[in-house]
Amino acid sequence: MLRSSASFILDKHLNNKPISITHSIDSPPPPSTSMADENSNPNPNPNPISAYYQTRAAHHGIVTSGWLEQAQAAVRRYPDHDYSSSPDSRRPFSVIEEFNNWRQQPDLAEAVAAIRALAAVIRASEATTMMELEIELKKASDTLKAWDTTSISLTAGCDLFMRYVTRTSALEFEDFNSAKSRVLERAEKFGEISCKARRMIAMLSQDFIFDGCTILVHGFSRVVFEILKTAAQNKKLFRVLCTEGRPDKTGVMLANELAKLDVPVKLLIDSAVAYSMDEVDMVFVGADGVVESGGIINMMGTYQIALVAHGMNKPVYVAAESYKFARLYPLDQKDLEPALRPIDFDVPVLPKVDVERSARDYTPPQYLTLLFTDLGVLTPSVVSDELIQLYL
Amino acid sequence: MDTRRGALAVPKVRRVGFFTSIEPPPDSQRPNRSQSGPVEATTSSSPLSNSPSGNLISPVLIPPSRHRSDNLTSRAAAPVPVPGPSAFRRHLAHDRSLHVGSYNPADSLLGTSPPSSIGEFSEDSVSLFGFQRSDSAKLSSSFPNGGFDLTLAVRAPQESESRIANSSASQGIKKNVEVSGKSETVTTQSKKEKESKSLKEKTSKAERRAIQEAQRAAKAAAKGEGSRRAEDSGRANPGKAAKQPQLKKEKLPVTSSVSEKKAAVEKERKMDVPQTQMQYDDKNRVEKAKKRAVVEQTESKNKVELFLHLPQYERGNQLLNLSSNIFTLDTIHHAVYKVGLLHLAGDISGDNARCIAMLQAFQEAIQDYTTPPKKDLTMDLTAKINGYVSFLIECRPLSMSMGNAIRFLKNQIRKLPGNLSESEAKASLCSEIGRFIGEKIVLADKVIVQHAVTKIRDGEVLLTYGYSCVVEMILLYAHEIGKKFRVVIVDSRPNLEGQKLLRRLVTRGLDCTYTHINGISYIMREATRVFLGASSIFSNGTLYSRVGTACVAMVANAFSVPVIVCCEAYKFHERVLLDSICSNELGDPDAIANIPSFRTNAKHSKTMENKKNLQYLNLMYDSTPSEYISMIVTDYGMIPPTSIPVIVREYRREHLLL
């Protein structure tokens, strides 16, 4: 981990702040000092740097050198933003800070962090009826969602939890307090579920990894890493090809982690995928979000790899926890909220040159073979089935 | 003409297995047989059709015969059921239907069944009938029959040939053979005599009938229709046929109390039966339906062969008659009558409009309804509704969505709590109908609009085909909320529905391009989204919509333009559709024969009409495979076409809970 990284500084800054459950922060911090504050604007400006990718960068400990400058530049562009417009500002408790606090934990998924943050809302709430609590929760989850519109799992997590609260509590519990504690319990459990889901997916996928196979991986997905780790522990003999994963070099990191486990690893630059596809037996990718059509939204480059694999008849497996299922339906690549991130080209780039900075792409379902989820091994078309059952 | 006829035999053969059971009362056949005449000539193809029907029906039903006859045949037949209990029988019949597979969509396992108006007792009735016969006639006669039928197809040709030779005199034979329990040795006179005795009365009637038919056939022959009609006449003796089967079903060998029981059973059945399309190449049913028909339709002369199972009528002449009848007719409520006429005249088009009009007419009819003395509201009202529905079908075949709505209504009627007074029941029904319209159509459209608008971005070019009210609402709403986009309206003859949409959009200030479907491959280059309406979507994701939609969707797919289908969930259907042939509707052939703007040459078109080797095919719908659909926007959100069965499942569950 690069201690000197910009994102770390930001994170530290956040951590140093007293967390607001104690109601100590009455006045918001001055807006211009940090990225996090900039992001807490409930109506995000047109091109903020995706908070989701910030978190990822922090977790993976890899940042590009231009990160700090760009981040600060972005902040400076909106120096006098009025923070008080936030609906939360009247309340001493801020769900966003709570969320930010949770998501610093490296092993905690965003959705889980969101749910923990919402649980904190319940704990801090002074509502006396279920209805009030629901309204309060709704407001909080809307704030959270608006805070980072680019994160799919955050949205999905919020929706999921809201769904749970509105469904269960109203029907089953007459007593408000028991309902409240029940909901809180559920929120606590969610963290465990998320970890368990990863284990489960790893177990499910073992049948698909056979001795002597070559696996292509793209990006650093915790679930995929778990799968490969489990396979290595099960004494399976396999080889992994890691893409480099420009610009945040997540692939390099995964390769290092795998090398520590004594798995034979080969690192490719992103453009060498098609070149090496014929020696690949299967492709494993993670997902930022799984959408209604059964397609996935994932790190930039996934679509390309899926296309190549499809063209060469190699199976593409996706590992994703079920809380990443989102009720979204992108029709094409531009149909998503773009998650922008800084890109470092090593060579100076003139300002006239436009740079595609989107951090992720959408892979349509017809290029995916199977999805490994904690609900089981699914074909892409089942995703919508599950979503409909969940939300209708 | 003749050659064409020959081809027709094929579908007949397939269907026979399923249907034969319904129609042929032994009596009717007999006369035919004994009596020759014009009928004979028609039967050339009949031997073929005999065998399948025999196979299907008799084996299961008549066990004793099986054993004996089986020796002859090496065929591995299904285990022979014991003739005894009715429950068993029914079960068997069910099995059989499974094996056979339904050629007639109406009978499919999915629960859509033929219109109530027509006898529904296909398999059961036949089998039972056979059984009964054996009772009343002699065992001896029945035994051979069963064995014979079974073996016929598979077995050595000699036997069958001989039989055919005998029987071929009349077309009715096939039926006769199974039903009346003819033996392989058809020639035996003694048997015939026996049978004829028992059926004396009927025979005479049937004979008379047959003569009539023959005359009619002769007339028809002049027009080139002769052979077909004759066939009909040979086979159909509808009233009697219906009676007999019912008996079977009830398992009452005695005919005494049959009629009442039958009626009750029929009603029960009818209630379950969602209305679907009748197979119009099924002569018997058509005959029957004709008798009850309020609307007199003249069949069009040059029918398109592939679509014989669909009604092909001449247009334009019935309306006058009907509209003058409006005050004299009392079996059909005037509101329903009006809607029927509107459908017939084509004044209402669009699935939602038709469905709403129908439901509102039903609402009115229910309000004016009073239960006749000694009758049950549930039963009687359902029968009434059935009558209305079949009237509407005569006017224009129902759309899938209307079928769903009718099913909903019947469910509501059935679920009425018994303790309600009549007025309460009526009020609750009316409010349920109102709720259906409000929730499933009006509100659903609003939700769809909300969803679909999120997929329209500034600067896009939206392409739409024909006219769909949901698509219109989407475009207008998107314009209202200030999205900047352009619309391409693709249209096609003969209805030119797109012009309606064009007019409405242009008056609201939208930027439009109008083109005909011939220009689709050119204009698709510009489009970034295709929005389509739907008449129905089936469980395999197949879109059933105005003809031309499939073409648009395919071109869009080729240009990788996303295709978005907007469809309310009440239009989803649990059936599976693979092509555009099985289920479709034929429009007025004149519409494509005459080009209005093109200096109408009445004489010219008249002469063309009389050409026997010219058939006009004006298809109304086509089916788009699900691969060409990127997304379906429905009231449950945006879903991929693979999720239609999920919605159908959930929706129907909810439906039942209603």
From TrEMBL, chain A:
Segments crossing the lipid bilayer: none
UniProt KW keywords: Cytoplasm, Initiation factor, Isomerase, Protein biosynthesis
Keyword Protein biosynthesis: yes
Localization of this protein: Cytoplasm, Cytosol
GO terms under cellular component: cytosol
Keyword tRNA processing: no
Region Disordered: start-end pairs: 19-50
Pfam families for this protein: IF-2B
GO MF entries: isomerase activity; translation initiation factor activity
Signal peptide positions (record): none
Family note: Belongs to the eIF-2B alpha/beta/delta subunits family.
Subunit architecture: Component of the translation initiation factor 2B (eIF2B) complex which is a heterodecamer of two sets of five different subunits: alpha, beta, gamma, delta and epsilon. Subunits alpha, beta and delta comprise a regulatory subcomplex and subunits epsilon and gamma comprise a catalytic subcomplex. Within the complex, the hexameric regulatory complex resides at the center, with the two heterodimeric catalytic subcomplexes bound on opposite sides.
Family matches, as PANTHER family: TRANSLATION INITIATION FACTOR EIF-2B SUBUNIT ALPHA
Name under which the protein is recorded: Translation initiation factor eIF2B subunit alpha
Biological source species: Cardamine amara subsp. amara
Lineage, highest ranks first: Eukaryota, Viridiplantae, Streptophyta, Embryophyta, Tracheophyta
From TrEMBL, chain B:
Superkingdom of the organism of origin: Eukaryota
Lineage start: Eukaryota, Viridiplantae, Streptophyta, Embryophyta, Tracheophyta
Name of the protein: Translation initiation factor eIF2B subunit delta
Biased composition (Low complexity): 44-59, 212-224
Polar residues bias locations: 29-43, 163-173
Biased composition (Basic and acidic residues): 190-211, 225-234, 259-272
InterPro entries assigned: IF-2B-related, IF_2B-like_C, NagB/RpiA_transferase-like
Family indicated by similarity: Belongs to the eIF-2B alpha/beta/delta subunits family.
Segments of this protein annotated with the region Disordered: 1-121, 157-285
